[in-house]
């Protein structure tokens, strides 16, 4: 631990002199790529990469006096500097503890984790590393540290400092509570013991969560905040992934930006909401709402429980819920469209002039200013209106990256202080010797005073719940959660019943976090006049446990009468979390109150229905939609019905098809049946309706289009006017889906060169549904122009990659022609815009059919794992499997999960799984030798009907897959994981069977012996 004096005039003068002399002391490790990279290819790519955005320039560090004089601030405010280099450098986050001390996370290790080498990198500077760093204290010590600064005499000057935790390696956030100091040090959430609460660890940290990604240290997990519900909340940026494990949560995975939370006592981790911009901040307002800024042009999102938000799908990855079928927009925005305000606070500190209360203070590090905006209720969410810049400067070194309101009601800014801001450059040219903390106060505000809430009694903390400064209320609430003092419950219950709305809400939270939650408290809260008290009562009923029987009835009662839009949002969110019978009842009951014009609630309603729309919930779903009135509800018609059918068809289990058939039979009118039909076509993703089971075909027949569309016949005659009309219909998102799909398929069959640009327009449409995109990509396959491949490749990273089906369709199209595949390989190898991990075994196998030497060598280098095993390797694998099966007593239940992920994508067992490969139920499943042999060597005996064929066309295309139908006129081929293609016989150059099975080798090579035993235990089990 070190202790230092406050920033002195002497230091300020030395900094001024240093800057005037041009003493920038910039980090000069620009030639260290050979040391950072694990291989030559990565080092060369890093060396030649041309950085993008606000990069390092030659300007000197601005002195403190120059920085302050350059700042233009509102007339009724003032700004001063409270900390600066060398006391703080690269300050990433600031936070105030209950004693009024300011904690600063200093991000000195950024951007490269200590002790790791880069094994892969892409054009977004997302990296993979050679290993996972060990957590402290075992891991390599990095340059990050967390320092506590204290104003010992209350005069507003932070005159002492203590390095509380040092040697951290990519640390982004700190908070405290429950007797611990919590630190985000991706990939870990750490808890340092601090039973006496002095802020100094009393021992080594414990890993509470493991699995936050490190691909982009500009966008790692960040911003620890205590929610009023007793959970720790955090954010994750856009260009990292996560697979989180805690004691009681396993393999919680998500791609890119999200708001997540962790419950320290229950040791449960969950994604609270997904999507957004590059989420590097969490704000929680007085009502407990959660927000984050964005790296776009708006002011960001109001995050609701279980909701999904817009993101750059191709770049950042898909949502965890493949049935979300939509997202919520950013809050409505009125202002100048300038990037970006990634972090902001809703000022509720009570110390600035009254005009600022409830306003948004948003930092813009790219443009060097602080934006003031107001928030106005907009149904269940907000609209934001810019009101001007509170603080602005032309100093390009002013880079505010964090903003917080303090115990004194002032606003504090963490200034990264660098001419560089962009992370899109692998060169470590960051200025690591600078950093400042600024304070904004009212022009006539007095200096701060000392505060130490840890000295307050529990009863005094209850009084603090009425404090005008939100910071005091939030700290008091957290301390009450620490203490679990039941003696406060009587007084808190009285406040819940009699106090004003805000204090009643604080009392509800305090009761919940201190152990006073009960059915009686729920009843009081749900009947409270304040909508936010009701909203939180709805949420807390299903936050950690299932609602009790009494609470379930109370939820149904409020759902029947509630009108407030935000409460309706929460009812929908809670419907998503509870059991199907209660969830569907809640969703149905609030559907009459949800306005179709609300920005959020129609989709929130769908997500309330969504988890319960499944064949296994047949009884509840049918009962819900047996009421004819629900079918005429505008939101149900416009938002829910088509998505409901789309999910059932995408899931595609027999029970889902049964439920889909019943819903078609329940549809009260042809219009509503037509809406279901659109959902069915979406669910098929361009596939053939006739592939559906017979009973479902009979149910949908009354609603199925009787022809291909009015223009089909004329279109096939290649009439130019009809072609133009059909392209207009295809481009029009309001045109009937079946008609659009029909015309796209016909244009693909005709392959008229002049239609390519129109089809490419459809492919580039950001709002086009996946089924349109997949069908368009299939149609484009029929044309020969290399420009098609270039356009697909351009659109792939940020558009076509988002949906798995569309991604596979794009890749199958690109690998079908050698010249297109060559362009594809260039984008993977040299430009690194496309990830080799996107490729399935089957697509790589098709690439291997191209025999040109350089191409084949590149394919083998990129995917060495697709090399066929030798006979000795196969024999060794078979022995390992047999030993695993005999050495461990496998769990059929665990094995069923593994089967679904590994085998069920192709094979059916006990009527579950897919029909790409032969059904396994009737095989000799008790013979371990037989099973092991055919798993390890799937090419030894390829069953008739499942032979993988290569079809070469006269125009140079190559397709692989199983022949599903063959006539004198055409061949219908089904690639594994792709959509079936129909090829005219007169187009075919050659058809030949391939000696390689569609089932890949090494299918279970990544499993442990225990997992192998589990898998075989399920495969060898008897039907239940």
Structure summary:
With about 1000 residues, the protein is α+β, with helices and mostly antiparallel strands. The strands form nine sheets. Strands 1, 22, 23, 24, 25 and 26 form a six-stranded mixed β-sheet that branches. Strands 9-10-11-12-15-16 form a six-stranded antiparallel β-sheet. Mean pLDDT is about 90; it is low at about 1-25.
Question: Could you name the key traits of this structure?
Answer:
1024 residues, alpha+beta, six-stranded mixed sheet, six-stranded antiparallel sheet, 35 helices, 36 strands, globular, disordered N terminus
Total number of β-strand segments?
36
Helix content: 25-40%
Shape: globular
**Could you say which structural class the secondary elements and strand pairing correspond to?**
alpha+beta
- What fraction of residues sit in β-strands? 15-25%
Poorly predicted parts: 1-25
Termini, distance in Å?
63 Å
C-alpha Rg, in Å?
31 Å
Rounded mean pLDDT is 90
Helical run tally: 35
What does this structure look like?
There is one protein chain. By secondary structure, this protein is an alpha+beta fold. It contains 35 helices and 36 strands. The strands form nine sheets. Strands 1, 22, 23, 24, 25 and 26 form a six-stranded mixed sheet that branches. Helix 11 runs parallel beside helix 13 and helix 15 crosses helix 18. The protein starts with 8 loop residues before the first helix and ends in a 5-residue tail after the last helix.
